[in-house]
Amino acid sequence: MKRPRFAKAASAGIGRIEKASSLDKPSYAVETAIARPSQIAGSPAEKAGNVLHGTWYGHPLHPMLVTLPIGAWTFAFGLDLLAVLGLRSKGVERSAELALKAGAAGAVVAAAAGLADWQHTNGRDRRVGTAHALVNTTSLALHLASVALRDRGHLGRGRLASAAGWACLLVGGYLGGHMVYRRQIGVDHADRSPEPRDFQAVLPVSELEEDRPLRVEIRDEDTRQNIGVVLVRHRGRVQAMGARCSHMGGPLDQGWVLNGSLVCPWHGSRYDLESGWPTSGPSTCPQPRYEVRLRDGMVEIRREQEPGDEIVTAADIDKVPPLPDGVSFSKKANEVLFEHHELIRQLFKAIKNTPRDDPQRRDLMRILASELEIHEHVEDHIFYPAVYSVSEDVPIAHSEHRQLADLLAKTLKLNTATQEFEEHLQALYSAMDHHAGSEERSMFQEAQRLGDARLRKMGQELERMLEEQRTSRAQRMFRDLKIRLLEGL
Ligand code: FES
């Protein structure tokens, strides 16, 4: 079995850092050194903290600021490389030094934002964060040393120092990437289920006490999870937001109300009860919000849509305009596509049942490739745009098409008589069957919301396009050429 050696070695290295408890004592001493003055300064320090976290702009600030040293120091490194390769001029030298200084200034600001976020980490994440800070501080020191050496006329040594600093930057970036992409520090931890799409009764109003957060749960059948929602009665109104804190997943239902905000018990982020937006960090991301109404003594909630949400609601379905009376076509779109799925399944069977050394296997493989391509084309051009307003499955269906195209390209390159081809053919079949099966189980059902007449009209358009794709000389030539190119001519 192939092993990604670098990834394994890096993962083992980071694992050692994560277990390095010797980093804890100094790191908590640093945290105390940051926390005490802020506690003494009070509100101005809190405001400064919110600026550094990025609470004011809705995203962590640190990732944006790190682009300053990365960009400037990489630019300087590139100029040094050009100079070493022979492009020497005073202008290049001056530009490199200027970039080093600009990068150093950016690094200091980025470090301040990073420090503000880091103080709220603990355990293994804090240790990796400490290592990340130490490596980046070394990088800063080397870049500053480079500037000093260049100023004293030691250009060669200055370039060596900044090259070493740039290498440290890569290591620091790797550690930072581990914290975000592997350990999910700084990403949104709230549950953003679209449920409930319509008002759902969750609790008798009488059970809510003023300013006492209470957790209720709703069910998301798609993900098969229960989603926690925290209800708060405040000044006579009931408010609802996601119970899992977007900062690091703290239980907001165990928090408390202060100045019209709900405070997270873990790191003290405060969320405005009316809007769900953080009024104070470290959180930068709003909580999912729910509309609330009181009916028959019960609290009913409905998920509020967020900008960019692609959630299908009953209101969206009502917006689908009806077709005029008297319009009638034969098959519905889902029936046409289902038939095509079946044809593709039969083609797979035919290839499997053809002896390995029979050259007909290659011909059948080309027909299969052609039909898969046609299928993707008609779905992308007719079906998906039409069902987008009534089904949330379209984005994943596009991803599955890409997955199928990649697998098909790999399979076409193989000798059809080999075991490797058999394995790839099976993988391709599994990917196709999964894609077709999930459309048949979910998207085709949701498409019924478009109405019978519209689906039949679309069915006719699909049949027309299928026919056109198969019979058009130009389309056939283009497809054949593509298949031959994928086969390696
Ligand atoms: S989990 Fe950190 S503030 Fe809520």
UniProtKB/TrEMBL annotation:
Top-level taxonomic group: Bacteria
Coiled-coil annotated spans: none
MF-aspect GO terms: 2 iron, 2 sulfur cluster binding; metal ion binding
Keywords assigned by UniProt, alphabetized: 2Fe-2S, Iron, Iron-sulfur, Metal-binding
Residue ranges annotated for the Rieske domain, each copy included: 200-301
Claim: Metal-binding is one of the keywords in the record: yes
Keyword Metal-binding: yes
InterPro entries on file: DUF2231_TM, Hemerythrin-like, Rieske_2Fe-2S, Rieske_2Fe-2S_sf
Name of the protein this chain belongs to: Rieske domain-containing protein
